Amino acid sequence: MVQFSPLRAHEYRHKCLPLRRNSKPHPMRIAIFVSGSGTNCENIIRHFDGSKKVVTALVVSNRADAYALDRAERLGVPAVIVPKAQLNDPNIILPLLRLHDIDFIVLAGFLPIVPDFIIDAYPRRIVNIHPALLPRHGGKGMWGHHVHEAVKAAGDTETGITIHYVSPVCDGGEVIAQFSCQVAPDDTPDDIAAKVHELEMAHFPEVLERLFAS
């Protein structure tokens, strides 16, 4: 993996091309943004491995210690570290995405808020997976274990995952798909997390494949 520096971004600005808009069909080139372990990231990479229609072209993490970067390298996908300050700089992140000819962005456990300028550059081409049934348990601070603890505290009998477009409103974008599971009275937050993770592994890549084909 590499640290994407402002100096290199300056160099890339003179090399990169606009997003491809030629008449010849080409595989959908996706970038996966991730902050942590990267099980969803690896699942997506493996799902599209060998596909003629979708290529995982880049993995981006805001954290140098994210294990997702190691997963990506092991699977032969370029991986870069883009700290939050650089993520919020259009002169850094946009040239990086254009350098890799990125058509679509997938957030798979990515914690920073995506800046509006990236959303504007990729309208309806950024999706996120949220570990609850939005609009319940969404918004700022609702990620990972915080969500499962909130589900338990609320006494919910059902939870699940929501795959949605990213908008300027945190967890407020249009819902693409939802999948649910039951929450038993004696389930702990860890139990809930395990059930939700099963849904993520089973459904996220398939929803993406249908979305890219539409």
Characteristic key phrases:
8 strands, globular, 2 domains, Rossmann fold, alpha/beta, disordered N terminus, 214 residues, 8 helices, single chain, eight-stranded mixed sheet
Helix content: 25-40%
Q: From N to C, what is the helix and strand string?
A: EHEHEHEHHEHEHEEH
Number of beta strands: 8
Report low-confidence residues grouped into runs of 5 or more: 1-23
CATH C-level class of the largest domain is: Alpha Beta
Strand coverage percent: 15-25%
**Major sheet size, sense and barrel closure:** 8 strands, mixed
The CATH topology of the largest domain comes to: Rossmann fold
CATH architectural grouping of the largest domain: 3-Layer(aba) Sandwich
Note the total helix count. Answer: 8
End-to-end distance: 32 Å
Shape: globular
Strand line-up in the sheet with most strands: 1-4-3-2-5-6-7-8
How would you classify the helix and strand content by structural class?
alpha/beta
Radius of gyration: 17 Å
